[in-house]
Design brief:
Its EC number is 1.1.1.41. Keywords: Oxidoreductase. This protein is of the alpha/beta class. The chain is 41% helix and 21% strand. It is built from eleven helices and twelve strands. It has a ten-stranded mixed sheet, sandwiched between helices. It has a two-stranded antiparallel sheet with strand order 6-7.
Length: 337
Amino acid sequence: MTQTITVIRGDGIGPEIMDATLHVLDAMKLGLAYEEADAGLMALEKHGELLPQATLDSISRNKVALKSPLTTPVGGGFSSVNVQLRRHFDLYANVRPATSFPNTRSRFSEGVDIVTVRENTEGAYSAEGQETAPDGSWAVSVTRNTRKGSERIVRYAFDLARKAGRKKVTVVHKANILKSTSGLFLNAARDVAKEYPDIECNEMIVDNACMQLVMRPEQFDVIVTTNLFGDIISDLCAGLIGGLGLIPGANIGKDVAIFEAVHGSAPDIAGKGVANPCALLLGAAQMLEHIGMVDRATQLRAAIVDTLTAQDSLTPDLGGNGSTMDFARAIASRVAA
């Protein structure tokens, strides 16, 4: 049976890494069909809007999407299309694994295997009540956490740990200072943890968690936290293993899931054919697991590791001289073998 997925090529290097990823998936002969949809600057140029209704309809219909990076302006301009997608489909769980890979420019070429589970729809990123003084002298934004949102993301993290055979969940918070919002999250997490006596649960204040991650990342297994802290911590974890070029992200809701590379659109190297496609390929592996192709996801990850180990056609950020498609072809040759 053919599985149709929505494909969003994105901005900047997005089309290049998507071409590379689809090349590898096609080599695996998975029976996937692709329905292309537009979002971001490409959609604005073609359709006059950043997130066309046709794109939302495609994702609703197919339930699964693979997405390249979309441009988000810093400090002004239009709001994040990624945030709009998460809100529209209630993609409450953001799942970002960070795993050591061979032959990367990192402090930890082994020993790191952390999954950050980030609440994806509430907290600081809800951006409620945003207001700036006319003279720019002050600004305000409301942070709102709910009991329901906190419970469901913590439960997702414990379910993930149990399913994956992981032994520990670390709840990261700032309840010592943010006693209302972070305190609500921590109290909800404590209640949910009681339902999982087989999984160790510990608590860590976010600043200490960041220090501990840098010093002894091997002590972490699954991390669950709120939206803003999860965004920061998952990037910190990327730094442990060699950068955002090796970090995928899954955005999971009740009915819909969107899988992506979590790095930016990198307009400075767009069109040069040197972008590393690993993050999107690893996102595709998460997608394969989601649709029940667990063995094929394992096969894809193994092919990526084998290609890194062999230093075969690596892109410049990984210390090689290969192009985006050279690297993809090297991986494809291993999944097709």
